[in-house]
Predict the structure.
Amino acid sequence: MGRHKTVKAQIVEAVRSAPGCHIEDLVMSCPQVSWKEIFVEVDRLNRTGKLRVTSADHGAYVLDLPKRRRRRESASNSTNERNAAAAGRLPPSGLSVRLSE
């Protein structure tokens, strides 16, 4: 018995193989998945940062995967800032520091 791919896996695979595709292209490349299922999953992946959806001309949307490098650098920067704040070198987020003369 064959293994079935999840809707998420099908979307990610399709966008990875055709970066910059339109949502209509995605629907055509996943004929076994309904338009509604694709739309719901694309929305969820976009909200969680695992898929990038950008507006194109005439109401079309372009799909792409976020660049891995940015996410790693961002996570690394956040970790470094938290470590510095814990060590007393930076104030916790949301607080401002005023130096007096």
Summary: The first strand starts at residue 21 and ends at 22. The radius of gyration is 20 Å. The chain has four helices and three strands. Strands lie at 21-22, 52-55, 61-64.
